Amino acid sequence: MPPKRLKLRAAASTIALIEEVLLLQLQQIERSTYVLRFPPLRDYVMEAAGLHFHFSPEFVIGLTGASHFHFIHDEFSLGACEMAVIPAGIPHREVPRISAGVFQNVVVSVYNQTVCLQLQSQHSTREGMQVDQCYLDSPKFALLAAYLNEMAEFHNPHGTEQPLGIKGLLLAYLDTLRSIIIQSRKAPTIEKLKISQVKKLVQEHLGSSSLSVRWLAELMHCSPDYLSHLFHIETQEYLASYINRQRVDAAMELLKTSALTISEIAFGVGFESPAYFSQVFKQVTFKTPQDYRRSVERSYVELEGRPKTIFAKPA
Asked: Which of 85, 89, 227, 259 could anchor a disulfide with 45, C-beta 3.0 to 4.6 Å?
């Protein structure tokens, strides 16, 4: 996967570029010329200054430049054409290193039952990291995470490593991911594209009190009634209910993992008042926010009840 070729296709859409990268990586694996890196499976879900961890594994592919990964007791650099598995719960920090004026890599993760594809770029002439991302709905999201977790288990530098098992799982992971991308592109109707875009907008503006069926309909250039009807036909759920459910889901995570007050959480997830938040929350969960928080105080440390990322407290 020469960086020069990737630069020539830089104008392609994010998802098209990622699909090409996956195909080239599959070809490298078939020739056994690939590099796959793992951090040690230790220090799980520990807080460390300057590091963070995720509750879902990530898969990283280097394109141009390099990524230097720091862990509590280890570090490694990921160069162009190389891949890395960052298992769930492993504290880390990634530092981009620009080469020939640009840094670029691909990060794949699974979050909120959705496959997230990110193209991360940083240029020497610009400040900050640019992240182009897309979301794909697929029932195979859990399978992707399982492949990565199994690869991390197979990689055991202090015991018997299973290279053939890792190679097989890596092929299955990349091929499954590529098939998800291809499937998402098969004859999508305009209506289905609208629903996909609406879901993305809901996630991106969940904390805004402006988020509503009417606001979404204006962005989609259709009437609120039509959009709500279309959403119901495609998902078997009304759009207003979907928005409230997503907000309640976000509130449940905050109730489990933060010390924010009920009012702070209510406004943080986009409700106009704590009273209306409590009303909707009870309709969805059959509990008040206070009762829900009390019911999970002893179990909030369970994996499923954590947010995607935990940052260490300032030193």
From this structure: 89
- Distance in Å from the first CA to the final CA of the chain: 41
Per-residue pLDDT, averaged over 232-236, amounts to 85
Q: Residue 158: pLDDT band by 50, 70, 90 thresholds?
A: low
User: Which SS3 state, helix, strand or coil, does residue 229 take?
Assistant: helix
* Cα distance between residue 49 and residue 51, in whole Å: 6
Give 9's pLDDT tier (boundaries 50, 70, 90): very low
Smallest CA-to-CA distance from 205 within 246, 161, 146 is with 246
Give the separation between CA 228 and CA 20, rounded to whole angstroms: 36
Mean pLDDT of 290-314: 64
Within a domain: 159 = yes
Token couple for 22: 């996956």
- The Cα 8–Cα 234 span in angstroms is 38
Confidence of residue 111 (pLDDT cuts 50, 70, 90): confident
Residue whose entry in the numeric block shows the structure tokens 């977790």: 149
Taking the C-alpha atoms of residue 248 and residue 303, their distance in angstroms, rounded to an integer, is 19
In a shared domain, residues 174 and 221: no
Spatial distance between the Cα atoms of 89 and 43, rounded to a whole number of angstroms: 8
Residue type, 64: T
Of the pLDDT bands very low, low, confident and very high (cuts 50, 70, 90), residue 159 is: low
Return all residues near 180 (Cβ < 8 A) that are at least 6 apart.
115, 136, 138, 140
Helix locations, 126-212, DSSP H = 141-154, 163-185, 190-204
Q: Is residue 314 part of a domain?
A: no
